[in-house]
Amino acid sequence: MAVHVDSRGNKFGEQMLLDVINKTAMAANADNPAAVTGLFVDPKHQAIDFCKKYGFIDATSDQGELLYIPIQHCITLSADL
Question: Cα separation of 37 and 69, whole Å?
Fold first, then answer.
């Protein structure tokens, strides 16, 4: 998921990210909340601070730079939407 450089600053990225967080929270609230532990993203360098603003934490591995947000934080953010 990304926003074209010409469209940045219009909150499209925020809307997409919050939608994904909300859908992740909804999946966890199904019959088995333990089935979803959180959400991983592999952001472009310029989007790292943007993601961290929503509570993502570093989960970098030898696979590349990853960020992670625990499911409970997804649920909390989703409740605030």
Answer: 9
Q: Return mean pLDDT, the chain.
A: 87
Q: Which residues contact 37 (CB under 8 A, 6 or more apart)?
A: 70, 71
The sheet carrying 57-58 orders its strands as 38-41, 67-70, 57-58
In angstroms, the CA 36 to CA 30 distance is: 10
* Residue 78 · residue 20 · CB < 8 Å: no
pTM of the model: 0.82
What's at 40, amino acid-wise? Answer: F
Q: How far apart are CA 59 and CA 75, in angstroms?
A: 20
* Contact yes or no for 50/43 (Cβ under 8 A): yes
> Which two tokens mark 78?
């989703």
- Length of the chain, in residues: 81
